[in-house]
């Protein structure tokens, strides 16, 4: 009996939308290569319809996600970090292939990405106390301000930091109860698409994070002009002219926009994707029950 060399099963990189892994509805794909020109795989080339489907999935998931306890959201983010830790070797290899980084350096970046998920998991039940609170007012009232999620946030991920930069972009949004539609690095989308597999096995409800791959110039305008998107992160838009066009399109539907090159700490990023609700409550409501407060 002759020996036959086994054919390796090559990975198919698909979109991650609504907790599922569809191909692009257009049937298109594009080749992804390493910096030295080695072809790595084909990635789905997302279309306008894919972007709209991702926004619809994010909107459907947003209210239930925001309605979960902060503790549970933190536990799910922590679970995602656990799952990424278990596959650190795979992601280090994909990251090294995508960026040309030394394998040890790539592993260090994966570990930073894991730590970032843990970091934002810890913020889920704390940021409301830091950003909100009781306000001093003159009169018989209690006055409280509470941060609430914007809704659906569209993110153009950093082009040269396909894993850590991606997580830094969407983690603050979902930690605060938003859902996200993320357009991965155009030239280096494979680590992001693999991250969808981590999220799918982390108890994260389908639709909370949706991952698209494709051309920024093709997909981002549809996200920027979509009336059901409440926030837009342009951190991964390298073309200043395109960034200005996207910001103008976003202004038509009054979105919160994070401009390219705008840096900030964790608290600034958490604050970016929240809005504030202030409630006035008469202080004497309990007086008829035998007391006041």
From TrEMBL:
Keywords recorded for this protein, A-Z: Oxidoreductase
Keyword Oxidoreductase attributed: yes
Aldehyde dehydrogenase domain mapped to chain residues: 25-244
Domain of life of the source: Bacteria
Cited Gene3D superfamilies: Aldehyde Dehydrogenase, Chain A, domain 1
Stored Pfam families: Aldedh (PF00171)
Molecular-function annotations in GO: oxidoreductase activity
InterPro entries reported for this sequence: Ald_DH/histidinol_DH, Ald_DH_N, Aldehyde_DH_dom
PANTHER family membership: ALDEHYDE DEHYDROGENASE-RELATED
Protein's UniProt name: Aldehyde dehydrogenase family protein
Organism: Glycomyces albidus
């Amino acid at each position: 009996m002759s020996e036959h060399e086994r054919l390796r099963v090559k990975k198919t990189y698909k979109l991650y939308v609504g907790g599922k892994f569809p191909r692009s509805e257009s049937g298109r794909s594009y080749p992804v290569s390493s910096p030295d020109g080695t072809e790595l795989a084909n990635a789905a080339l997302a279309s306008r319809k894919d972007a709209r489907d991702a926004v619809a999935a994010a909107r459907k998931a947003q209210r239930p996600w925001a309605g979960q306890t902060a503790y549970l959201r933190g536990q799910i983010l922590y679970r995602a970090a656990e799952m990424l830790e278990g596959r650190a070797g795979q992601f280090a290899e994909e990251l090294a292939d995508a960026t040309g980084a030394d394998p040890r350096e790539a592993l260090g970046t994966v570990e930073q990405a894991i730590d970032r998920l843990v970091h934002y998991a810890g913020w889920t039940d704390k940021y409301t106390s830091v950003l909100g609170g009781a306000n001093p007012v003159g009169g018989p009232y209690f006055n409280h301000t509470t941060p609430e999620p914007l809704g659906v946030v569209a993110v153009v991920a950093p082009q040269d930091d396909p894993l850590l930069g991606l997580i830094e972009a969407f983690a603050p949004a979902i930690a605060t109860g938003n859902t996200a539609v993320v357009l991965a690095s155009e030239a280096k989308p494979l680590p992001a698409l693999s991250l969808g597999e981590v999220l799918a096995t982390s108890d994260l409800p389908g639709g909370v994070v949706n991952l698209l791959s494709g051309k920024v110039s093709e997909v981002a305008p549809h996200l920027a002009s979509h009336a059901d998107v409440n926030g837009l992160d342009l951190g991964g838009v390298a073309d200043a002219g395109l960034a200005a066009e996207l910001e103008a399109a976003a202004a038509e539907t009054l979105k919160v926009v994070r401009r390219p090159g705008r840096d900030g700490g964790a608290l600034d990023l958490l604050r970016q994707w929240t809005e504030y609700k202030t409630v006035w409550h008469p202080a004497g409501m309990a007086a008829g029950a035998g007391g006041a407060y």
